Amino acid sequence: MTQPPSASLQLGEPPARRDRRLLLVHAHPDDESINNGATMARYAAEGAQVTLVTCTLGERGEVIPPGLRHLTGAALGAHRRRELAAAMRALGVTDVRLLGGAGRYRDSGMMGTADNDDPACLWRADVDEAAAHLVEVILEVRPQVLVTYDDHGGYGHPDHVQAHRIALRAADLAAEAGWEIPKVYWNRVPRSVAEEAFARLGEDLPGLPFEKAASVADVPGVVDDERVTTAVDGSAYAAAKAAAMRAHATQIEVAEPYFALSNGLAQPLFTTEYYELVRGERPRERESDLFAGITGIVEDAGSTGDAGSVGGAGSAGAGAQGGEV
Ligand SMILES: [Zn+2]
């Protein structure tokens, strides 16, 4: 027997769709789509305000398409800025900011490379100074939810580590200035989910345009399942996520439900995205909504929680690349 609709609505559905404000802080254009593309598309479609802050333009990224490999440095940054704008159109996200303005912080390159010593790179930035730019955004947007990487940056890239530090520092400074973000999350992948997906990938690999597969160890943020507090089912937005990832063509090759970065190693494209709540009351059972338990959101009684739909690249219409991007 199913429950009466009113009961299931109360128990199973978040009460409101409006007045939800989600802030994501990422290091480079493409990180947002890989980590949170389905989440961003879903919340944007549901009427939440989704704000992305990207810290660098990814000027040190390795370019995949041979025809674009002449792009380096500032030219690559400018190109990736356009890729980011296209990805946001695919996700239906209109509020995109570049930390401190375009080009303020340069890509630091992989850990241990000479690029780490560039005084203009994010890795060399003063955390408090960089965080001050983000505090402005937080005080303007007043997000209830912040999503970023863990203290290892998910996999140790200096810009990801620094994005983490800046995000957490900004959250502290914003709290002192009058807006405490109720829930802060790190991007995660449960180990069992990663292992299962890679087992499937092993079987599918012969039919894919990638010669080799990555391994679980190559996926940022993989942790034991019990640490994962939240799973956002974005399967209805799989096409939007794939379109957003494709928009980052210099960095990503997509063959759904897999993709590869410049190393050419296939990995799973997750459409359920996972999180670990690190600030806020840890739920006893795994949540399905980043906003679960948030009070003060205006009730939208007419909503039944329908996910709506979002199309592929370009469907969000003109003017979708708001903010500074
Ligand atoms: Zn990155």
TrEMBL record:
Catalyzed reactions per annotation: 1D-myo-inositol 2-acetamido-2-deoxy-alpha-D-glucopyranoside + H2O = 1D-myo-inositol 2-amino-2-deoxy-alpha-D-glucopyranoside + acetate
SUPFAM superfamilies xrefs: LmbE-like
A Pfam family that the UniProt record links to this protein: PIG-L
Region (Disordered): 303-325
Details of cofactor binding: Binds 1 zinc ion per subunit.
GO molecular function: N-acetylglucosaminylinositol deacetylase activity; zinc ion binding
Broad class of enzyme this protein falls into: hydrolase
InterPro entries: GlcNAc_PI_deacetylase-related, LmbE-like_dom_sf, Mycothiol_biosynthesis_MshB
Keywords assigned: Hydrolase, Metal-binding, Zinc
Gene3D superfamilies reported in the protein's UniProt record: LmbE-like (3.40.50.10320)
Composition-biased stretches (Gly residues): 308-325
Binding positions (Zn(2+)): H28, D31, H160
Gene Ontology biological process terms, A to Z: mycothiol biosynthetic process
EC number: 3.5.1.103
Cofactor section: Zn(2+)
Family named by the database record: Belongs to the MshB deacetylase family.
Its biological purpose: Catalyzes the deacetylation of 1D-myo-inositol 2-acetamido-2-deoxy-alpha-D-glucopyranoside (GlcNAc-Ins) in the mycothiol biosynthesis pathway.
Listed name of the protein: 1D-myo-inositol 2-acetamido-2-deoxy-alpha-D-glucopyranoside deacetylase
Taxonomic source organism: Streptomyces echinoruber
Underlying gene: mshB
